[in-house]
Design goal:
By secondary structure, the chain is α/β, with parallel strands linked by helices. The protein has helices at residues 38-43, 69-83, 95-106, 137-144, 163-181, 189-192, 213-222, 238-241, 243-254, and strands spanning 2-8, 11-18, 22-27, 47-52, 88-93, 111-117, 200-205, 227-231.
Length: 255
């Protein structure tokens, strides 16, 4: 896949793209963009993939202008319209799942099929989700992974080995995430789920300690016709811990 910088509206957005076939938009999670991740390369084997960095992450600009979740949805509408591929399939992971669902609700004519992977965006008083911004490192690793050793396989858009720069990179990303996830990641998405018309698949790793199963059930119930899949031996990043199983259910759904 190729990394490029391009304009989306007035923002400079860094994206990874490649492949051929049906167009596929991939929206990354709250911590970081995965860069040239193996699972994105495999998706590009069957799809024309574009995986942008969210505004405010890494090299992408624009977070200062995004005051409401609607601004994010309209940003991605602009990106897809500029792409000029017509309706696209959309995969959104974690925070990217929230953004993907909002985009699908606001612009149903631009989304062919929707895949939400461990999505944020709802809040259930009966089962509060943990706050990922305050979890100590050990607790975060335990909540994020089925097997914390899997963290070694996680990829990033950050390529410099300087630990100081890496810490700044991470804090910038998390600062952008808090705009839509803190103190709780509920910006009214639950009221808009019925506006999603695209066939929808909700995927969750069975060991995900960040997004409880009740949230996956709430997304599935809130979107007409949606169905869900659970991936065994996987946490918040099933595409990393169980790449083959993840790609199998995604490709079967998108086919």
């Amino acid at each position: 896949m190729t990394m490029t910088m391009s304009k989306v509206g007035s923002y400079d957005i860094r994206s990874w793209s490649g492949g051929s076939g049906a167009p596929l938009l991939y929206l990354h999670g709250f911590e970081q963009h995965p860069g040239d991740a193996p699972y994105l390369q495999k998706l590009a084997g069957k799809h024309s993939v574009i995986a942008p960095e969210h505004p405010g992450y890494g090299e992408s600009t624009g977070i200062e202008d995004l005051q409401h979740i609607l601004d994010v949805a309209l940003h991605y509408r602009q990106l897809v319209e500029d792409w000029g591929q017509g309706p696209v399939d959309v995969i959104g992971h974690s925070l990217g799942g929230m953004f993907a669902a909002e985009f699908a609700a606001v612009s149903p004519h631009l989304v062919r099929k929707l895949v939400l992977v461990s999505p944020y965006g709802l809040w259930l008083d009966a089962e509060p989700a943990p706050d990922p911004f305050v979890l100590p490192p050990d607790a975060m690793a335990g909540a994020k992974w089925h097997d914390p050793a899997s963290a070694a396989a996680e990829t990033s858009a950050f390529t410099d080995d300087d630990k100081g720069e890496q810490a700044v990179f991470r804090m910038k990303n998390l600062g952008s995430a808090t705009k839509f996830m803190w103190p709780i990641p509920d910006r009214g998405l639950g009221r808009r789920l019925p506006y999603i018309k695209a066939p929808t698949l909700v995927i969750r790793g069975e060991a995900d300690g960040l997004v409880p199963d009740a949230y996956a059930q709430a997304f599935t119930a809130g979107i007409e016709g949606a169905r869900s899949e659970r991936i065994a031996a996987a946490g918040h990043l099933p595409m990393v811990e169980q790449e083959a199983a993840f790609l199998k259910v995604v490709e079967e759904f998108l086919a």
